[in-house]
Structures are given as C-alpha cells and as structure tokens.
Amino acid sequence: MTSLAIFGAGTIGGGVANLLNARGLVSRMVIYDKNRDLQEAQRLDILHTGRDVEISTDPEDMRNCDIVICTAGLPRNPTVKTRADLLHTNLPAADSCARYLNGFSGILIVVTNPMDIITWYFHTITQIPKNRIIGFGGQLDSARFSYTLHQLDIQGPGCILGEHGEHQVPIFSRVDPSLPESKRNEVLSDLRGSSMEIIKGKGATEFGPSWHISELVRIIARDDKTCIPCSCILEGEYGISGCCLGVPAIIGKEGICEIEQWDLDPWEHAHMQAAGTFVSGLCRTLEGNK
Ligand SMILES: NC(=O)c1ccc[n+]([C@@H]2O[C@H](COP(=O)([O-])OP(=O)(O)OC[C@H]3O[C@@H](n4cnc5c(N)ncnc54)[C@H](O)[C@@H]3O)[C@@H](O)[C@H]2O)c1
Ligand SMILES: O=C(O)C[C@H](O)C(=O)O
Question: Gene3D superfamilies from the xrefs (predicted)?
C-alpha cells in the first residue's frame, strides 16, 4: 500500500491525513509540521482512530515515501485579496519542504498557495522530473463550477483550467457553448469569490480541498489513468511555457502520464493565454531565488 508524507499538518494537511487514513488509502505516513505541538496532536488524533497505520514525524523519512504533499504555508484570510498575494510569504515553506526531497523518487503534490507558482518553484529548486510534480486545485475549482452549473440547470460536470486563482478558466464549450458571454463573465466572477465566502465564514476552506486531494492520491495509488484538471509544468502545451498551469492531464502511478490538448473556443483561449501571461510573469520573478 501507499506511503505518504504530509509537510504542514494544519487544516488541510491534517484533514487529508485523516481522510486518507479513514479511507484506508495509506499504510505508512510521515506527518511533519514546524509547530511540534500541532504535529504531535495530529499524530495522536489519527492513531486514536485505531486504524492500522504507521506514523513517523521524522522529515528525513519523506524522501522514501511514494507521495509527498506540501500543505505548509499561510492560508488566505479576508484581508488577503488573491492567492498570488501569498507568494513571498509562502516561498520559505516550499524551501523547507524541498530540503527533504533530495533523492526522492515519488510524486510531489503541491497544495500551498499560490499553488501554480509554488509548483513551478519546486520544479526549479528540486531535481524531481516534471511528470512527478502535480499542482492541486483544478479538481476543487471544477467541483465549484459544477455546483454553479447545477444551480443554472446546466448539465455538468464542469472543468476549470488555467490558474488556481483569479485567472481560472471555466470551460463552457464542453457544457453549454451557447451561454452568452455576459453570463460566462458573471459565472467567472462568482467562481473567483467562491472560496472567500468559506474563508469569511469558518476561517479556511477544508472539506472540499481535503476530499479532492484524497481523490488525487487514490487516482495515483490505484494507477487509475483518469483525466483531471491539475497544474502541470508546461512546455508549449496550449501555446504556454515557463510556468505551471491547470490543464487536463491523465494521472496514474507515474504521475502525469499525458497532457490532453483540448480545443478551446475563442473566449476560453483568450482567458487561457491571459492566465499563462500572468503566471509565467510571476514565475520569472523567482529566477533569482533558485
Ligand atoms: N491548492 C488548493 O486548492 C488549496 C486549498 C486549500 C488551501 N490551500 C493552501 O494550503 C496552505 C495551507 O492551508 P491550511 O488551511 O492548511 O493552513 P494552516 O495554517 O491551517 O496550516 C499550514 C501549516 O503549515 C505549517 N508550516 C508553515 N511553514 C512551515 C514550514 N516551513 N515547515 C513545516 N510546517 C510549516 C504551519 O505550522 C501550519 O500548521 C495555504 O497556503 C492555503 O492557501 C490550497
Ligand atoms: O481560496 C483560498 O485561498 C484557499 C484555496 O485555494 C481554495 O480554493 O479553497
């Protein structure tokens, strides 16, 4: 069975560790957090489920795991407008995580925001091959889009590509190509605000991300070869390079098996290019940090 490390055991890291243990998807876990009291509390709380799981808190064990998930770093609060605003705050958490990944031959899932740029940053500071670094967020955004579509009586599921942030790109052409542009823009504007509604109400998003991260782990562990939207290192796909961005990718036990090239309509294409320009611009600013 799969061995997995969680780097940063707060709301999302702890929630994912709990779900994966409860779903019986992992046999060995490393749980690490710089807050040692929290780390120990999460370890004990999971062991008290009584399930058969081994837990280490030694970060040096991370490199021997099949999957490492980076969930360390500050989340947004209502005063932080966009995920991109967290970039410089959260780079040190990525640096700390990368320090334990020398010789790691498994799959790295990046959750820390701004997720696309942090995923790219990991690519530049570690030796992990590009098919083994996956940025998480597209599944969650797509579930939010599907929820909105359902409220509009449009048959889903919906899919979101582009940035996990303000430059997300809902793919309307696959669900209702006839939806007028004004309605598309209205839906997009609602989607941009959908997680902040939760952050304002309960301090953080929790159940949605934890569930979809556990699904991603299941897809990898079972070698499902399922196509999901996730952030991948791009080298010309969709005409974009020099960044990570949400694209449809087939995922299995080797990580990213293939990036699918979907036909986008002109509205989607323009939004995807804008996402590429925005995210690659931020990625370029990190060049001195390598
Ligand atoms: N990609 C997504 O879809 C998605 C979804 C939800 C949250 N997030 C992001 O995930 C991150 C974590 O969110 P959260 O709600 O769990 O936050 P949280 O504050 O509850 O947990 C983060 C944990 O990281 C730990 N940490 C910080 N720096 C560390 C370091 N250098 N080494 C070890 N541990 C460190 C903290 O002690 C804390 O316990 C945030 O950046 C948030 O924006 C992304
Ligand atoms: O919105 C956030 O800041 C948290 C996370 O990226 C989410 O989409 O739930």
Answer: Lactate dehydrogenase/glycoside hydrolase, family 4, C-terminal, NAD(P)-binding Rossmann-like Domain
